[in-house]
Amino acid sequence: MANTLLHSPWIGVPGTVIAAIVICITSLVIYRRWFHPLAKIPGPFWASVTHFYIVKYNLFSERSQFYLQVETLHRQYGM
Amino acid sequence: MKRHGPTWTLVADNRAGPVVRISPDEIHLADPENYEKVYYIGSRAPSKAPYFYDAFGLKTAAFGTTSNELHRVRRAALNPTFSRKAVLQLEDIVQEKTAKLIGRIKDSLDTGKPVDLHHGFRAFSVDIITDYSFDNDYKQLDSPTFGSEFYEMTSELITRGWVLQAFPFLLPLSELITLPMAKRINGALYDFLLFREVSWWYLCGPERVLMTLL
Questions:
Q1: Which residues of chain A have a CB within 8 Å of the CB of B170?
Q2: Maximum CA pair distance of chain B?
Q3: How big is the CA angle at B192 (ends B189 and B196), to the nearest 5 degrees?
Q4: How confident is the model over B87-110, as pLDDT tens digits?
Q5: I need a labelling partner for B73 at 20 to 30 A (CA). Which of B64, B79, B99, B192 fits?
Q6: Å from A32 to nearest chain B CA?
């Protein structure tokens, strides 16, 4: 029964696509966090895996305020 | 690792001082003096980050050119404008605008009114730059508001820059926006596009502008 479900294109095709996307993202995160040339530089986890960390502060704070966050980061990770 | 040789070595040896990783491929140096250790004339450090500069939509300008080699060529065309001799000739323009600004400040003080120095100093820079670079003084120092509308327009458009940086696929779409469309979407965007057309008109003559409008 489970076998027939898996072989049905309605489950199999989207399943494969989703699995591919998940594998893609996971391997990118693992590479950027642990194998990238900058992996040893201190910094927040989300900043090391995605550009949207900066976007979050520039676009969704009072007024383009990533530069203020940078100051906080230096206080936290090394002045 | 090899491609970015000098930068990574500096960071690894701790010679670049305190450093924080702010994105997958960007770091931030706490001490601005260390910038010179990475980027100096003839440095082989990585070029400008395309994602950052492409959002300005100035790919063919020296400012928006991200490849070091190409930038050197394009910037060379501007070099005579910033030679010692050229900058010394600039003095008259600077003095003229300074006199204007001081005049405005004095007038306000005489009538006992406050002076909008924030916009005053910006108008001062804008007038010097436009007069020297385009031979087309925007005369913001003569405007009662020190051309604050121009400043409001640019600061409102910063958000547009952040959005285009975050979602670069919107760039070609944003270039499809025409003047009548912009008028309905956002006042600052309309002012900006109009300003761009007028600048083109001034630089290239009416034919070029008519071509883009038709």
A1: none
A2: 65
A3: 140
A4: 898 899 999 999 999 999 999 999
A5: B192
A6: 6
